[in-house]
Amino acid sequence: MQISFELAGTDTECVYEKIVGITEGGCDLINRFQYNSDSIHTNSLKIVKQLYQTTNEMTDNAKIRIMKLSGPHWQEYRDSGWIALFGQMNLSLFCIDIFQGDEATLNIPVIYMDGQNSSLVLDSVSFSAINLEAAQKGVIHMVVDNSEFAATNCIFENISYTYSCVSIIRFESTTQPTLSPVKAIISGCKFKNISGQGDSNSRGGSAINAEIGKEENKKFRRNPFQLLS
Which domain of life does this protein belong to (predicted)? Predict the structure, then answer.
């Protein structure tokens, strides 16, 4: 890849960190992004607005538009998420607005992570105008295994889901038989105009949902704080 070539002199060399800058014109996400550390040659990926943390950085957030109907949307079921990372990966987003640019219904999470010792950091990121129809999934979905999640000053608004057991942020563990730890810190975030439903046991349909450990030990968290309308 070009970043590996510029940093290490070869496009197959693994580098410590890669930073992807989104310009003022924004970015249309037509094809789904599915990678692991071997395919992108790094364990740390940052997606930021143009010239982030410089004197010439953009005033507003950069925009990522999900354009499902512009691509091979019939193949969506083959993938885990619109932005999906696997293995020991650290993904960070700074000053990004993510929203749907068409009227399609999404059948997979917007961000999906599955890997041991993985982490997801969201800082000043917004998710809006999203219609998700994926049973037992989240707009942000993490399969946790000694994982970390942090969201600061983020906004989740105008999001709807029509299946039961769908949440905005969802943690899931398949580790048996012990509980798999996850450290989550959420501060200064707003949840506005969220519409959804839970299942017959009132599970899911919440801002944050966690199902961790064996079936008899799984912990469910529903609406730990009031959603702002």
Answer: Eukaryota
Secondary structure of residue 127 in the 3-state scheme: strand
Tokens of 69: 């109907």
In this structure, how many other beta carbons lie within 10 angstroms of the beta carbon of residue 90?
A: 20
Dump pLDDT digits (tens) for 18-73.
999 999 999 999 989 999 988 898 999 999 999 999 999 999 999 999 999 887 76
Paired strand residues for 40? none
What residue spans define the domains of the chain? 18-217
- Beginning with the edge strand found earlier in the chain, give each strand of the sheet holding 96-100 in spatial order: 27-29, 62-66, 96-100, 126-132, 155-164, 190-197
Q: According to DSSP H, which parts of the chain are helical? A: 2-8, 37-40
pLDDT in tens, 158-210: 998 876 667 899 988 876 655 567 889 999 999 999 887 655 565 556 788 87
Beta bridge partners of 192: 157, 228
Q: What is the pTM of this model?
A: 0.85
Cα distance between residue 141 and residue 138, in whole Å: 5
Cα separation, 195 vs 111, whole angstroms: 19
